[in-house]
Request: fold
Amino acid sequence: MPIFTTRNLDTKSRIVVIFGEPTQELGLVAGRVANGAGGINEGSMVSVVRALASQRSSSDDTSPPGVVLANMGQTYFWPQGKRAITVLASSFLPLPSLLHKGVRHVPALNDIPGNEDPVKHVKYMFDEVLRSMANDKALLDVVAIGDSCEIVERFLDGQEAWDTWGKRLNSLTLLGPVCEAEGLTNGPFKDFMAKRARGYLVCPEPLGTPLAPPEGNSELSIPPLGFPCVSSSEPMYAETILIRARSHIASHIQDVAMDLGYENPAITPIDCPPPAMTEQHWDDLPEEHKPEVTKVEPVEFKAQVKQAKRWRKFQETGQAPETDSESESEV
Reply:
């Protein structure tokens, strides 16, 4: 399985480890940007790595930090192509004929040892890659996107993982997190999150707007995630948070790296009621996000109502009507 790392990783005093979304190919942030007006640099990790290359590792080390890009998505090995691909891509592999329904997953052929899924890949990145390629004193800034947030949190919540990596964890930045803190059990890790972790949420408010303290914000329906959360200014997609808020995220990571005693300042969430929907909002909404409205002929509608009533009777009594000729009042 391929991953990306900067050169001379063993000489770096600080390393930024990025876990992308489990649906993305290695190095890709958002296909909707890379394949659109933004271009490959804006929609991939190229722009992120360039931003990190302009940083300094610490107040005592002016060299840029090392960077490691995990490969959360390409966990399926394609023997014919001799390379790793995403699970989604495996559904579109060429078939021998039109009669074949699909490609059968064969663990012995398609699983990558130690990286069979995103959960195991996170463990592999820490226990194998970072343990062998980084020096044992390098501090780690961990960034996770989308579904990878919960996977990384639960890994670090493990006692064995925390005992090994907790003392080396410099910061934790989660983009689009949803895992509530009450599901975690490791007290020291939860304390670390409250002090040195930050979440960027999908939200149209200006970039950096405080949304919730570690205890959450019921007014905005934000549960207690265990760390302060701010707006990413991205209104719809978690995958594009890193693109929209890249400079803000990089600046925050740098601030934490420059102060070994850094602790998150107390934040006061702003009052940001949802804006009223206007005709312009409706016109700007992508077609796939608009509710579908269809028209049904009266006869078909009557048949659908009757079928729904028959199902409801079956759910309530466990007995289906004996014939389709029963009147609507009977069903």
